[in-house]
């Protein structure tokens, strides 16, 4: 126990009668010895700012939150987030005895008037239940917590592949009117995968406020297994700054789920005074595409980083072979305007679809009642 400045003896209110009362979320996680990136929804009923979310969840850089939500990289921390608007929060995940939990973040400092239950339900929006905080922090008596003490909030997450495919696990908060099928449609997965992953037998049992493990497809990349950011998983419709902020990588479904990276000087590098070379060969840098002929193109791609350099790889691939889904246009340029416009449109389509399903469910249910 740390030095006690103030002692707050507080009653833990165990009345869980509200609509938020959901069983604690536990995501299966069996991948050993790795830390991976995960995402979780955070909603504040009063509205908030990105800076508040960054501080609350101990996110290292604001850009990590911007990338997770595909917001423009020049968005500032005072950007306001509307009441109950869900934002995706990125955090490191580690498997522990079959269950995934955030890797010793976020750390919350107890304030006067806090109870474990109110920290779980209100401050962390019900993403954890107070017994999980109690267990993670080895607190023997939940009724006695000390102002100024630090608590690790163990957020649910996973690092497991799904169906042999690399994914980023996203703890999605179910909203009123959502259906499993609608959520699957919106995030590019299937109802069956969601049901299996979350141990749900009856899709109709889905409730608002429930935290669903939603696997987001990650883009394929050339990052080598000895790179400091391996496994480099960037989820569909997100971007990440890596290699101490010297490289920006985006994952976009319109590029056939192939990661697009480019050198960036938008942010001051961390750890390095200047960014090391991102050159593949003379005058060819990460992100440059050189057209060889009408069909084959060569791209200088990001292949990872170490404490003192950035690796590159020259990759040649054919753009003539029909894309599997037949819809992707040939060779979209990574130096172009980025994924935001197309992705926004698709999100909107997903939203319309998910609500369409809700409407159909509602109609069917009404018929059933009659
Ligand atoms: C995990 O890593 C530790 C040290 O890094 C190593 O001793 C241990 O054998 C590894 N376990 C597995 C299952 O790979
Ligand atoms: C929202 O505002 C109410 C009323 O001011 C307050 O009691 C509550 O703690 C706030 N919730 C959050 C998550 O800040
Ligand atoms: C952010 O950058 C875009 C161009 O990429 C620009 O149109 C916009 O005004 C910028 N926003 C701010 C707040 O600087
Ligand atoms: C938001 O933050 C930026 C820089 O951090 C500042 O220039 C701007 O004035 C702030 N806007 C508001 C409304 O506080
Ligand atoms: C691991 O989980 C099992 C059951 O889920 C439990 O019985 C066991 O005590 C746990 N081990 C540790 C070290 O937490
Ligand atoms: C948890 O706390 C109890 C007593 O408060 C102590 O005996 C035990 O060693 C602690 N366990 C851990 C893992 O810190
Ligand atoms: C990828 O993201 C876009 C935009 O959010 C979405 O429309 C699409 O369904 C997603 N696809 C997959 C396979 O995740
Ligand atoms: C999680 O793992 C446990 C133990 O391996 C297993 O019994 C359970 O079915 C799994 N749950 C899901 C949803 O896969
Ligand atoms: C890392 O990748 C190399 C090939 O690039 C492979 O030979 C090696 O086995 C891999 N190591 C691990 C630990 O996966
Ligand atoms: C960056 O520096 C910090 C401390 O200065 C160190 O803990 C961390 O491992 C370094 N990261 C990399 C990727 O070199
Ligand atoms: C190659 O990439 C560099 C660095 O990203 C960029 O400045 C340059 O304009 C690119 N050249 C071509 C031909 O795209
Ligand atoms: C593209 O490259 C492949 C080998 O990588 C070659 O077999 C093929 O003929 C090339 N296509 C064209 C149109 O040059």
Automatic annotation (TrEMBL):
Cross-referenced Pfam families: LysM
Signal peptide extent: 1-21
Annotated TM spans: 350-369
SMART domains: LysM (SM00257)
Protein name in UniProt: LysM domain-containing protein
LysM domain mapped to chain residues: 106-153, 170-214
Keywords, alphabetical: Membrane, Signal, Transmembrane, Transmembrane helix
Top-rank taxon: Eukaryota
Gene3D superfamilies (alphabetical): LysM domain
CDD domains given in the database record: LysM
Organism: Lupinus luteus (European yellow lupine)
Keyword Signal: yes
Lineage: Eukaryota, Viridiplantae, Streptophyta, Embryophyta, Tracheophyta
């Amino acid at each position: 126990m740390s030095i006690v400045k103030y002692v707050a003896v507080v009653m833990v209110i165990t009345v869980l009668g509200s609509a938020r009362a959901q069983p604690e979320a536990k995501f299966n996680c069996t991948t050993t010895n790795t830390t991976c990136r995960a995402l979780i929804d955070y909603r504040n009923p009063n509205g908030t700012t990105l800076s508040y979310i960054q501080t609350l969840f101990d996110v290292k850089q604001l850009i990590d939150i911007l990338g997770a939500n595909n917001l423009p990289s020049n968005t500032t921390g005072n950007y306001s987030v509307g009441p109950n608007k869900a934002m995706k929060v990125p955090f490191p995940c580690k498997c522990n005895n079959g269950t995934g939990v955030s890797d010793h973040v976020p750390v919350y400092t107890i304030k006067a008037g806090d109870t474990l239950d109110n920290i779980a339900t209100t401050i962390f929006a019900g993403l954890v239940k107070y017994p999980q905080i109690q267990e993670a922090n080895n607190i023997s008596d939940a009724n006695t917590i000390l102002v100024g003490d630090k608590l690790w909030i163990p957020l649910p997450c996973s690092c497991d592949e799904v169906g042999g495919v690399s994914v980023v696990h996203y703890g999605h908060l179910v909203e009123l009117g959502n259906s499993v099928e609608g959520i699957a449609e919106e995030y590019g997965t299937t109802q069956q995968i969601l049901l299996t992953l979350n141990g749900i037998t009856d899709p109709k049992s889905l409730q608002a406020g429930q935290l669903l493990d939603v696997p987001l497809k990650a883009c394929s990349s050339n990052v080598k297994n000895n790179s400091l950011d391996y496994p480099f998983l960037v989820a569909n419709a997100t971007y990440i700054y890596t290699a101490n902020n010297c490289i920006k990588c985006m994952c976009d479904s319109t590029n056939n789920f192939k990661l697009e990276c480019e050198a960036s000087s938008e942010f001051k590098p961390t750890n390095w005074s200047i960014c090391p070379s991102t050159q593949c060969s003379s005058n060819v840098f990460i992100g440059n595409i050189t057209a060889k002929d009408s069909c084959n193109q060569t791209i200088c791609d990001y292949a990872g980083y170490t404490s003192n350099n950035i690796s590159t790889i020259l990759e040649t691939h054919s753009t003539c072979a029909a894309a599997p889904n037949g819809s992707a246009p040939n060779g979209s340029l990574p130096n172009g305007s980025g994924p935001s416009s197309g992705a926004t449109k698709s999100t909107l389509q997903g939203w319309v679809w998910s609500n369409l399903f809700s409407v159909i469910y509602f109609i069917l249910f009404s018929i059933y009642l009659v």
